[in-house]
Amino acid sequence: MTSEGGGPEGAEGVEPGTVRPGGRTARVREAVLRAAGDALVEHGFDGLDLADVARRAEVGKTTVYRRWSSPAGLVADLLTDMAEQSLPRTDTGSLAEDLRANARLVVRTLTDPRQGPLFVAVIAAAACDPRTAEALHRFYAVRIGEWSGCVEAAVERGELPAGTDPGEVIAAVSAPLYYRLLASGAPLDEEVADRAADAAAAAARAGVFVR
């Protein structure tokens, strides 16, 4: 788990879920976030209970309540951790291949036995909890920002028109994949991933995403 140095647990004036711990505190955070993810998969956001998470993580309830204070704070930190652990973007020198790599990574994540249900639970929570929604928006902003570089490079190579919005291209790759996960229930596989990537690339070349 990637973590950075930060203030002590329960530091006054620190928003729960924003401290970057180190040492023993990092190990506690790892255990608690793993337990929180398990609980979300099993019970959803409505069933997320800090005392249950503490029990699963084998840490004191006081530690969990002091550091995260609420289920929303716990989910916010879980999303931060997920963003920290996400794989870096691919750089193949080809827009089509970069976007296909992005789409395949999304599909692998969404079809993973644990990660898929976890994303569904978090997205469902975001629909009814403003703080969780804000954390989810930050998570996707980070991921889109990380992958936008492949679009920027394609513009520099002359593959795409000047003024192409990188974030819109990356969002167009994953949008149909999340639609299948959350709305249609249609299968998700590499063929679907490649088709989504190719469609986004074709639209980008046609100037659809020029600001």
UniProtKB/TrEMBL annotation:
Q: Which PROSITE patterns match?
A: HTH_TETR_2
Record key words, sorted: DNA-binding, Transcription, Transcription regulation
Q: Where is this region: Disordered?
A: 1-24
Q: Which InterPro entries does the protein's record reference? A: Homeodomain-like_sf, HTH-type_TetR-like_transc_reg, HTH_TetR, Tet_transcr_reg_TetR-rel_C_sf, TetR_C
Source species, domain of life = Bacteria
Q: Which residues bind DNA?
A: 49-68
* UniProt feature, compositional bias: Gly residues: 1-10
One Gene Ontology molecular-function label: transcription cis-regulatory region binding
Looking up Gene3D superfamilies in the UniProt record yields:
Homeodomain-like, Tetracycline Repressor, domain 2
Q: Where is the HTH tetR-type domain?
A: 26-86
Pfam families this protein is in?
Answer: TetR_C_11, TetR_N
- Put simply, this protein is called Transcriptional regulator
